[in-house]
Amino acid sequence: MTKIPMTAEGFARLEEELKHLKSVERPAVIRAIAEAREHGDLSENAEYHAARERQSFIEGRVAELEDKISRAEVIDVSRLSGKEVKFGATVTLLDEDTEEKTIYQIVGQDESDIASKRLSISSPLARALIGKHVGDSIEVTTPGGSKSYEITKVAFK
Q1: What's the superkingdom here (predicted)?
Q2: N or C: which end of the chain has fewer CB within 10 A?
Q3: pTM of the model as a whole
């Protein structure tokens, strides 16, 4: 069973979602199914079928979250240090073509959000960065073509 790296913040978010699904969503869908059953013939009852479909989604997501939480390897980023890019690092990159600076934090798959500048550890850019140091240049193939970056800063916050 492979471990899933994630930050403490990402782990807490998964636990919160699981708690919400079990304590709020699950009881609500059970009530919806009971109400729909009271309306009679279930074969043509759209409310019943929608509620059952929602229940199936919730149960699937609960199982998925429980699996991820059980395999989580929570990494305390504040205890990390160094100049090498690794999980949890906040990396400042300089686009070698446009001279534009960008800052990304490398996080677990379930935590990634490109709008918040949080890169998944499995993304092509993060994979290219892992193990590199300040001053190193990397080249990444993107949908828009090849991009070159220089690592100007590595920090752990």
Answers
A1: Bacteria
A2: N
A3: 0.80
Q: In whole angstroms, what is the distance from residue 23 CA to residue 139 CA?
A: 47
In order of 32, 40, 46, 48, the CA distances from 43 in angstroms are 16, 9, 8, 9
Residue 119 C-beta-side C-alpha neighbours within 13 Å:
24
- Domains parsed from the chain with CATH numbers: 4-75 (1.10.287.180), 80-155 (3.10.50.30)
Helices (H), the chain: 8-20, 26-38, 46-71, 124-129
85 to 7, 17, 61, 82, 92: CA distances (angstroms): 15, 30, 32, 8, 10
- pLDDT digits over 51-78, tens only? 999 999 999 999 999 999 999 999 988 8
Q: Are strands 72-75 and 137-142 parallel, antiparallel or unpaired?
A: unpaired
Distance CA(59)–CA(42), nearest Å, equals 21
Neighbour-count burial of 45, counting CB atoms closer than 10 A to its CB (0-12 exposed, 13-18 middle, 19+ buried):
middle
